Amino acid sequence: MGTSVIRVLCLTALVIFGFRNMLSMKLSEQSGIDLLLVISAAELTAASVIYPEKPLLPILAPLLILILVYQSRLWFYRFTANWSIHEHLIQYLKKKSDNPIYTNYEPPRVGLSLIENGKVRCDNLKQIGKTQLWLRQELRKFGYRNIRQVNYLTMDTLGNFYMDLNEYMRKD
Known about the structure:
Layout: H1 2-18, H2 20-23, H3 32-50, H4 57-98, E1 112-116, E2 119-120, H5 122-128, H6 132-141, E3 150-155, E4 161-165
Helix pairs in contact: 1-3, 3-4
């Protein structure tokens, strides 16, 4: 009984220490290989507790190999991710410095709000050079005659509309 308790404590601490990065991530963020490694490690730990008469070394060696594989995957992923971001940044800066078009580059506004709580945002319409008449015509194209039917409306840089309808005034 004492051997099983000591094995549970030691191997649990080893598994938690070896797979500590995985504990902070959601299950949906983890890859299938990582889950497979953890499940295999848990099975090896359970086998060592179920069979306390068997020696620990034949179970401990594969467990350490699983932890080593998991840690090396993390290290490799971090190395390649940092390298690719670094290379991408260098290429972007080279393009920016070589091309005079990028000197006055301003990132586009994303999701400019045109209607909020059923009311037109005239300042944002003026910013894009459009009028309330234009907005009403665009809404009519979608079948909405009353602006109050639309709770929230945004327009992206490509001219696509994204709207949330007022649930009390939905068109049938």
